[in-house]
Structures are given as structure tokens and as C-alpha cells.
Amino acid sequence: MTVKKAKEELHEIFSDREGAVEALKEWVDKQDHLKTFKHFRFLLKFLRGAKFSQLRAREILEGYCSNFMEYPQWFTNMDPCSKAIDHLLSIGYGFPLPGYDKMGRKVLFYSISKLRLEDVGEGKLLSVDDMLKYWLMNHEYATMDEKVQVNGFILFFDYTKVTLKQMSLVGGDKAKTWNKMAQDRLPGRLKGFHLYNSGAVIEFFFALAKPILKKKYLERFFIHETLESVYGAIDKKYLPSEFLPDDYDGPTAGTCAELAENYKKEMQSPKWIKYFQELSNGSIGVDKSKKKDTKDEPVTMFRKLNVD
């Protein structure tokens, strides 16, 4: 299914991939103002996010690199072992579910009621910026999966026992800034927002979301009032045990605590510590003073861009 979808939806032709990545790399090599990774898998992620339009891939990549200069509170010092990130991993605020949903997409699961601006040790108070950096790191983790690059991912928000105070932690100008950046400058296919047990907070949520989300994303909201509705989107075997019926005797993914613990071990493994250190230590960025006028530059291997 992934190979077929890559061809039909992303216009990805396997025999052309190396040439497309090489064309993007050659363009990067000519941009004195850009600093970025140039390995195959990294650049392929931007081409897939752009449906193999070289022009759009350049725009996303340049915007992504600019993020490291413009939003250092989120894009620098990404450390899975820092006090704040370790705390969010430990409480199980957000983690990917094992496997994929019924359309082959990765599910990023968030338990909103667990979020509090609390002491995380050594007198440091968890901040909204810490939370947004955590979202970013989860996004990076998910979108390095080639299956996710093709099929996309969804966000699942569990609002059980959430308060309006918790709902309002991210709002106003900070929310607008984050969402504009995430919608325009992050490679990836965000295919849906699934809200469970949102109850009375749903109107408050949409009051925050409508002014800052593009129309295509507003059309990708799914409200689940019952677990039966959730099961229609996500196979039971991938859901936390707390979400399964008492009489369910099939395979299980584990409890929320077990899934959070497994994700923490994965994120704090040498592989991911190294990745985030390399990503946020100055290897990526933009020096606008060195940018050339490229309006007359030819676009190699341009393909028609369709809106995702």
C-alpha cells in the first residue's frame, strides 16, 4: 500500500528518486546562505512533503532552516534528557502508538490532562515553550519513518478529565506563531486531528483553532464521543489498555504508562540523543546576508504541485 500511495499521491517514481534528491542537493550546494543536512533520507523527506515538486521542496527546506534562527526557543538544544523533556516523557504526556492506524498512518497520542506548568526539578518550571519543543521532537521522530513520510500521521488528543485551564495553556500569539510555522515550514503529512471525550471544552478548542488553522486542516477534525467511534479509526491492538473494553481478549499494546516508558527509552537511546544533538547544535540555519537573488534560477525536475 505504501509504494502504491507514494506513486499515486506523491508522484514518487522509484527509479527517479535518486535523481530528484541529487537535484535538490545540488541546489542546496549553491545556496551560500543555507546550512542543512544533505544526506539522502533527510532530503527525501522534503521532496515527499512537497509531492516531488522541486520548487515547493526548496521552499519548505528553506523555511525549515529559517526556523532554527527565528524560533530558537523550540529549535535549539533539543535534548531528550533535559529536565523538561525528560519530565514530559516520564508523565506520558505524548507518545506514538505502536503500529499504524487503518490507513497506514502513525498515531501520535496526547493525554491533555497530564499537562501542567509544574516544577520539573532544580527549581525549573515547565513552560509552554518546553511543551512546544516536545511536540516538535515528536514530529521529528515520527517523520523520519519512511512509511509516515508517505502515509502521514494523525494527532489523537484524549481530553478525559481536562480542565479549561489546561486547554488555555497554549493560546494567543504563541499559538498563532506555532501553527503558522508548523503548517508552512515542517515537512510531513498531517492527515487528521482526532479528539476523544472533549465534552464541554470542544467549543473552546475550536475558538482557538479556527483563526490559526488552514481550511484543509479544519476539515480534518474527527470528534469521538465514544470508544466505539475510536475503534473505527484505530485498531484495538494498538490502543492503550485503558481504552479497551473489559471483555477484549485480543493482543494489546500495553498501558499508557508502559507505552510512555518504552517511548522514553527509545527517545533517550544513543541513536536519538545523537540525532537531536546534531539537529540543534548549529548544523542547520540561514544567514540571510548571504542570500542571492534566485528569481531567474531554473527549477530542475519541476512537477505540478497538488495541495495535500
From TrEMBL:
Gene3D superfamilies: CRAL-TRIO lipid binding domain, N-terminal domain of phosphatidylinositol transfer protein sec14p
One Pfam family from the record: CRAL_TRIO
Residues in coiled coil: none
Record-annotated CRAL-TRIO domain positions: 78-256
Cellular component terms (Gene Ontology): membrane
GO MF: phosphatidylinositol bisphosphate binding
Xref: PANTHER family: ALPHA-TOCOPHEROL TRANSFER PROTEIN-LIKE (PTHR10174:SF130), ALPHA-TOCOPHEROL TRANSFER PROTEIN-RELATED (PTHR10174)
Protein name per its UniProtKB record: DgyrCDS398
